[in-house]
Design brief:
alpha+beta; 7-stranded antiparallel beta sheet; 5-stranded parallel beta sheet; 24 strands; globular
């Protein structure tokens, strides 16, 4: 482990250790179930920052208190120094609601050093959040951080300022905006209503590609609102573990599209606080790129074997897995007759094998009634692969909530 404890600086401990210690310290302070409220999956290849403050929007899918954040240096090659972190309720844009800012510490320290390949979970923060409310998390990187661990396609706005502006209520100093998240990998809370976490695990469709920026209209967002509106015991948190371009079996050559589902599933899905269910909806990038194991052409059995591995891993952790059928894509560059044959074979297996704990038939819900190989034009964003906002809602509506009553 790199770094050392000096003054107010804290070297991060491994995630599991930090979570255990922080959870034990907070157990007597708040009552309810600790669940993940927001948690984008992270990748490598992000930009470097020097003497800058990053202010990011966190849209909580569930109400709760006793909040903690996770900072990730998991996919970076050098230690990350962060000398100030705070959280506030968003007023609008990058502006915080006056009087709501709370300092965030790690083991009682304001300055945290996170070794390459590791993460740090904060101390409990005395702030409450409502379902659907936005928080602003600001972190100051005093030196040069090197390549960042990030989530490229946030479909939300991040605000960047030169120097330390973590305590600013206004956004006047934040002259640069992006649509990515950096280092910030999670918000978890103790919820009085949610009894567990549902992880929507997938690729760009789950990540929200072509959904409207800042509207939280991805299908996992809409599903979370459905669950929140339902009667107990259906009050579950939903978090989005989608990465654009991600594949089940192989790493993507574009670094920001992530390592394979086989490599990240244990961390991104099964590592979530309070996880009870995973909705597994991934594979179209494997098919569209004909990306089989060891560089050979893909077969339907390859993808099925990948699913079986993930199911076994989840069941070993006492987590249920809901399988989602792959949606049609005729008219997109991914489509070929051979690729369509694999998609059909895989979908038939998902529906009939009994390997999953339940099935969501996105294919049936989203296909064109007049041409089942194509996406319904009413839901098509224009590229014949990704749904628009209305299509995202239709996907969320296709999930039988009874599957998630864990």
């Amino acid at each position: 482990m790199l770094g050392a404890l000096t003054g107010l600086a804290l070297t991060a401990v491994p995630l599991s250790t930090a979570q255990t210690a922080s959870a034990a310290a907070s157990a007597s302070q708040v009552k309810g179930t600790r669940v993940s409220a927001w948690s984008p999956s992270m990748t490598t290849g992000g930009p470097s920052f020097t003497d800058e403050t990053l202010r990011m929007v966190v849209h909580s899918g569930v109400s709760g208190s006793g909040a903690r954040i996770t900072l990730s240096n998991r996919y970076s090659t050098a230690p990350l120094d962060v000398s100030a972190v705070d959280v506030a309720v968003q007023a609008s844009g990058g502006e915080a609601t006056r009087g709501t800012t709370r300092n965030i510490t790690f083991g009682g320290a304001h300055h945290v050093t996170i070794p390459a390949g590791e993460e740090a979970v904060s101390d409990v923060v005395p702030i409450s959040v409502s379902a659907g409310e936005n928080l602003l998390v600001s972190l100051y990187v005093p030196g040069t951080a090197g390549m960042s661990t990030w989530h490229s396609d946030a479909f939300d706005t991040t605000y960047i300022a030169s120097g330390n502006h973590t305590g600013d209520d206004t956004a006047a100093a934040f002259g640069t905006t992006t649509t990515s998240w950096y280092y910030l990998a999670g918000l978890d809370v103790v919820s009085p209503t949610a009894r567990g976490t549902v992880v929507a695990f997938g690729d760009s469709i789950t990540d929200g590609y072509h959904s409207s920026t800042g509207t939280y209209s991805r299908w996992p967002d809409v599903l979370g609102r459905r669950l929140g509106a339902g009667p107990n015991p259906q009050r579950l948190s939903v978090v989005d573990a989608g990465i654009g371009g991600n594949r089940v079996l192989t790493d993507v050559p574009n670094l920001w599209q992530g390592v394979s589902a086989l490599k990240r599933f244990g961390h991104d899905a099964l590592g979530q606080p309070g996880v009870k269910d995973v909705i597994l909806f991934e594979g179209i990038n494997d098919i569209g790129n004909n990306a089989g194991p060891d560089g050979r052409p893909l077969t339907a059995q390859d993808l099925i074997d990948g699913y079986l591995t993930l199911i076994e891993e989840a069941h070993a952790a006492h987590v249920s897995v809901i399988g989602a059928t792959l949606m049609p894509d005729e008219g997109n560059g991914y489509y070929t007759p051979a690729a369509e044959a694999i998609r059909q074979s895989v979908n038939q297996w998902i529906r009939t094998s009994g390997a999953f704990d339940g099935v969501v038939d996105f294919d049936r819900a989203m296909r064109d009634p007049a041409n089942p190989a194509a996406l319904n034009p009413a839901y098509d964003s224009g590229d014949h692969l990704h749904p628009d906002d209305e299509g995202m809602k239709a996907m969320a509506d296709a999930v039988d909530l009874r599957l998630l009553r864990t």
